[in-house]
Amino acid sequence: MSAASIVVLGIVFGLAVGVLFAVLIRAAFDRGSAVLDAQSTALPDGATAVISALREPALVVDGSNEVLLATPEAVALGLTDGRSLRHPELQRLLDEARRECRPQSADLSLPRSAAGARTLVLTARAAPVDAARVLLVVDDRSDAVRLDAVRRDFVANTSHELKTPIGAVSLLAEALDSAADDPDQVRRFAARLSAEASRLATLVQQIIEFSRVQGADPLEEAEAVPLDEVVRAAVEHTRVGAESKGVGVVIGKKSHLWTLGDRAMLTTAVQNLVANAIAFSSAGGHVGVGLRSRDGIVEIAVSDQGIGIAEDDLDRVFERFYRTDQARSRSTGGTGLGLSIVKHIAENHGGEARVWSRLGRGSTFTIRLPEIPAPASARTPRREKERA
């Protein structure tokens, strides 16, 4: 064998040995990494099943606060993006539990998103699983805190609103007593007393109605509601007020549109819009009520030719007890609750309430609701529809 051949064989043998060692080293590295991964992610027997069964937001992190396991509720709440925690406050709580080697808890207020549109109010509890891993369980109290704030605000506003008519009734009663010998004064004070009593009764009734729509879920026992009948009933309930003020109310042609919900609540919502339009219309004006369908959404629109609403007030007209014109509201008997009731009823039915208005040109309030097909028992042959 020549010297050149021996050199070539040596080179080939050296390459083969090098490749073999490289393969062995790579296999050893992979095996070691797999062992380390298993040690870092493996949870005690049954722990994964228990955590996955939790209905509360929960997750487990390793020593680097990397998420090993998270329930769908934790992801939906925005606590993690799948591998890491989104809030430094939670990381500090986990570090404290790991450092103290015992459970830790904290009440936290965290932004739901980067924009901070909604605040999460949480009670978070962290408990060590072992020297590195920590279990985090969260109680989301956001809705409870929000409802409690709404309740306190509502009670405060209601107390304030009730003071005015109650005080007026008390003063008028005293004035009536002092004017007992003057029949003209008695009649004048009695008329004002009657007006304040009527205003007080309306306010109390709307407070009761508002409390009912806030607590009710109309979709729990929902039924198919024919919106043509809702509109007709709402207009009929306001007919006396419209005639006494000389305002005409016009209903559009039959639409044969349906939605799912509570018929009485929907009638109340439309009635409030029509009554509001009549109250803010001048004698001889007209109010129009129409129905139409667009992209699976039913729209109930109530338009008037009244004084209109300033642009600065448009974003607040659906707030509780908000009045765009205090003096005008007193003269029309407005309570500031009617439009708020409309908004809540629309939202409770999976819809929304909108407003368009221009000063001096009038306003259009629209309730938008999900449309459903007409029930089979209510479907009318085409010829009968055309006659209708």
UniProtKB/TrEMBL annotation:
Transmembrane ranges? 6-29
Q: Name one GO molecular function term.
A: phosphorelay sensor kinase activity
Record field: catalytic activity: ATP + protein L-histidine = ADP + protein N-phospho-L-histidine
Domain (Histidine kinase) ranges? 157-373
Its top-level enzyme class, in one word, is transferase
Quote the SMART domains the UniProt record gives: HATPase_c, HisKA
What Gene3D superfamilies is this protein classified in?
Answer: 1.10.287.130, Histidine kinase-like ATPase, C-terminal domain (3.30.565.10)
Under the heading Pfam families, the entry gives: HATPase_c, HisKA
This one is known as Sensor-like histidine kinase SenX3
Q: Identify the species of origin.
A: Amnibacterium setariae
